[in-house]
Amino acid sequence: xxxxxxxxxxxxxxxxxxxxxxxxxxxxxxxxxxxxxxxxxxxxxxxxxxxxxxxxxxxxxxxxxxxxxxx
Length: 71
Fold this sequence. Notes:
The protein is an all-alpha fold. It has 3 helices and no strands.
């Protein structure tokens, strides 16, 4: 574990050590579940896919039409 991660973990522990047992158990459960779920390997998977009926040229034309020059 790197020094900065270790320091961060220690900071969180100091913050959480005063929580009641039930809250700590809930946090542990959520952390374990996060370990068991598969993370998204692709950053773009965090967002929805682009859905549009227009073709690329039409989208580009609309972008150019919407431009405004501000002096």
